[in-house]
Every structure is written in structure tokens, then in C-alpha cells.
Sequence to fold (195 residues):
Amino acid sequence: VVAAVGGLLYRQITDSFRSGEEQVIVARIEPGRTLAVLITGKGQQLLLQGLKDTCLNLAENETLKINEDGSLKYSLSALSRMPEWHTLRIPKGGEYKIVLDDGTEIWLNSASELRYPAHFVGNERRVYLTGEAYFQVVRDEKRPFIVKTRGLQTRVLGTEFNVQAYLTDKVNVTLVNGQVAVKVPEDSREILLKP
Fold:
């Protein structure tokens, strides 16, 4: 009887220790895939997933080309004055490349959003970013390229740089080539970055 009771007590004690152990679950992290949602100025939403080597017509003579690699390229006519603002939203697990009207190439990372005009007009090229993007800006000394994020404004003429501006983190600007001027809105000074 003593041996049976002792065995039951031993089993209950070891079972209670096992239930307190943490279970480790191995999750497979998939690489980012080409995935985005394009929102036009009129509110139309287009899912950009799996589309390659095709064209999307926005208006007369205004087309968007999706290249062989799945990236989006604006091919607007030289007479276009359509300053309609578009938004490119990248969900978690996605990534996307876009070529703007001026030839600037942008690689957007997961959980990012870029707001930009379909056609640049005026004396500057301004875009708004939430999340992370890598820029290769086409040089145009008459029209600086400005990236506006939460808390920072980055002004460039033509260069390569990365901006990380997720809502939960500090804003980071990493310069690869050329130079950029970074400005905090509350401060009148611009800080010039060089690689």
C-alpha cells in the first residue's frame, strides 16, 4: 500500500512539473513576396499580386505598366498634368518595387505605405512614407525630391538612401550614395548627411 501511494504521489508531482514547462513552437518565417494594394485618387483599390507584363489603364493615355519582375511603373504621357494622388500599401509579409513618373525607383518593405502623385507637377517632387523604403532618386536639380515621414523630412536631388519610419520606432535615414538634407519640422536647420 505504501509503495502504491508513494508511486501515485511521485507521478502527480512529476506531472505537475511537466505542465509548468514551456512548449517551444517552431514557426517558419517565409520570405517576403511581391504583394501590394494600389489605391487611386478616386478610391479604387487594385490588388497587385502575381501580375506580370501587363498594363492598367487609368485614363486616356495614362497607363501603369507592371513589368516582367512584377514591379509597377508609371508611363504617363508628356502632356499629363494629372496630379492625382495614389497610395501604395504593402501588407505584412509583402514587399514591392515601384518606378515613379520621373524614373525614381523605390523598394517598399513589409507593413509600409507610400503616398505620391501619379504625375509630378510644380517645382518639387514630394512623397509621404510610413514604414520602410529604399530610394534611388533620379537627379533633377530644379525639382528636389522630398520624402516626408512622421517627424522628419528628407530632401534630395539625386541619390540612394533608405528611410525607416514605422509608427512604433524612431525614424532612421541611411545614406548609400550622394547626399541628403534631413530636417526635423520643429527645427529650422537642415542636417546634411554624406556617406
